[in-house]
Amino acid sequence: MKEPLYRSIQNDLKFQIQKGVYKIGDYLPSENELCVAYKITRTTARKALDELFKDGFIQRQHGKGSQVIERRKSLGLLSLKGFSEAVGKKVETQFLQEPGFRDWINNFPFKISEKELENPCIHFERLRCVDSEPVMLENNWFSSMHLPGFIEMELVDGSFFKTLSQNYQIEIIGSEQELRAMTADSELSELLKIQIGAPLLQINAHFSTSKKDFNIYAELFCNTAKFPVGNSYMK
Amino acid sequence: MKEPLYRSIQNDLKFQIQKGVYKIGDYLPSENELCVAYKITRTTARKALDELFKDGFIQRQHGKGSQVIERRKSLGLLSLKGFSEAVGKKVETQFLQEPGFRDWINNFPFKISEKELENPCIHFERLRCVDSEPVMLENNWFSSMHLPGFIEMELVDGSFFKTLSQNYQIEIIGSEQELRAMTADSELSELLKIQIGAPLLQINAHFSTSKKDFNIYAELFCNTAKFPVGNSYMK
DNA sequence: TAGTGGTCTAGACCACGCC
DNA sequence: GCGTGGTCTAGACCACTAG
Fold first, then answer.
1. Distance (Å, rounded) from C-alpha B45 to C-alpha A220?
2. How confident is the model at residue A228 (pLDDT cuts 50, 70, 90)?
């Protein structure tokens, strides 16, 4: 039950990265410096850094150090390519349904645990646009149990996952996804401003988190004609 | 340059799992048993097991042991896994073009390094069927430099990645992929036995490997109507 | 209670990047 | 040459699972 030492150091460093004490490109203190600072051995310092690496916060370079990097979406997360880097572009996100209590979905490819179904479901729907053109429709469902005050909350940088991490200390630790190519029906064609019958990428996803019995279920419809969906992984 | 101790133990165990010495559901020797068997310390034994866990071969249970588990489900191609190890159905693979020397592709979304372009390109094209229905068309390109004898070789269990691992000790260590929904043209519709205009999932992939300057470039077209493409990740 | 994995200490040697 | 991360040893205590 007790939190391991390495985890508190890991969280400490993570927090400093999120606060901007260490910015992207900066190097964290070396393992030996961490040993001194926290009065621990290298094994423990390494474990903390290893975890930060696994979570995609840092990159480790033999002979150089641990460098803070832009958080990669390599938790098997799929992301719209060029979405976050779309510097010149105007990225907008528009709520079609604000976060609120809704019914739990059924007919979903991933099983929702009974513990979750006992609690009310929070849902929201967003439309993502680049240069005012809609490219993705996104639905999220999750149990309200662990997120007091979420409904009234503004998302951190417009990001749901970032909000979970910074406001609730909940991290995504796993995912399973199903991908299908399909064609737009009248409803989707209208929302995404494409022809009926145009190809769409449908993603059904289940994200597990660091909180027991708290999972996120999502359904996305992506118009990949201009922005393909990307996925990268580095061991 | 030298292979770490833990890796040789990891590979030893991996090989025994692949050969069936340890079957799904079996428990590997405990950490202490590995210490004795290989004359190592627990740190090293743990590191080997941790790697096997990361690669999805085993599950670790506090107080019980390390259990061999089924590797990722679905057409887990997105999770770095080959196709043939992943599906429970009757999977057949048919070569449309046997491995041979071909021109390097261009117009590919991922850059091919100059070192690779200096060497001849090996290519093959396969049609993957589940229960006799074609579900996926697969093209692979890669440099011939590190794979002597590949062209005459039979694939291990019909799996390209398994062949690389077992016959050449080359492991996939990273990937980047681009996904698009598109519609079948006349050529694809004929090969995959679907209507012209039916939705298809196109995947362009770049796999990096444990060998420097050896990468695999692939293009897939998947009919996801019956078999969605899956992707799972567990920290 | 015995055996397992999870955490942690206090050392050591090595390979890599950089000056 | 020096500091970095990568590997490895030889211990220790703890928490979990099971008989």
1. 42
2. confident
Distance CA B194, CA B186 (A): 9
Q: Which domain holds residue A15?
A: 5-69
Are A218 and A202 in contact, with CB atoms under 8 Å apart?
Answer: no
Q: Which residues from B are below 8 Å from A232, CB to CB?
A: 174-177
Q: Same structural domain for residues A125 and A197?
A: yes
In this prediction, residue A208 has a pLDDT band, given cuts at 50, 70 and 90, of confident
In a domain, A141, yes or no: yes
A69 compared with B97, residue with greater pLDDT: B97
Closest by Cα among A219, A8, A44 to A123? A219
- pTM value is 0.81
Number of domains in chain A: 2
Both structure tokens of B220:
């897939």
Q: Could you tell me which of A230, A233, A205 has the C-alpha nearest to residue A84?
A: A230
Same domain? B115 vs B37: no
- Model confidence at A74, pLDDT cuts 50, 70, 90, reads very low
The answer to whether A5 CB sits below 7 Å from nucleic acid chain C is yes
Decide which of A69, A96, A119 is a domain's last residue: A69
Chain A neighbors of B54, CB-CB under 8 A: 235
Q: What are phi and psi of A206, to 5 degrees?
A: -125, 120
Instruction: Please determine, for residue A195, whether its predicted confidence score (pLDDT) is greater than 90.
Output: yes
Q: Flag whether residue A229 sits within 8 Å of chain B, measured between CB atoms.
A: yes
pLDDT tens digits along A12-41: 999 999 888 999 999 999 999 999 999 999
What is the side-by-side strand order in the sheet with A121-130? A91-102, A121-130, A133-143, A215-222, A199-209, A172-183, B229-234
**Model pLDDT, residue B161:** 87
CA A49 to chain centre: 20
Q: What's residue B197's pLDDT? A: 94
Flag residues of chain B having pLDDT under 50. Answer: 73-76, 79-82
Helix (H) or strand (E) holding B37: helix B31-38
Q: Which residue has the tokens 């490819």?
A: A109
Q: How far apart are the first and last CA of chain A?
A: 29
Q: Say which CATH number the domain at A85 has.
A: 3.40.1410.10
A36: which strand partners?
none
User: Residue B20 sits in a domain of what CATH number?
Assistant: 1.10.10.10
Give Cα B24 distance to the centre of its chain: 19
Strand C contact with A4 (CB < 7 A) = yes
Nearest nucleotide (CA of A43 to C1'): C8
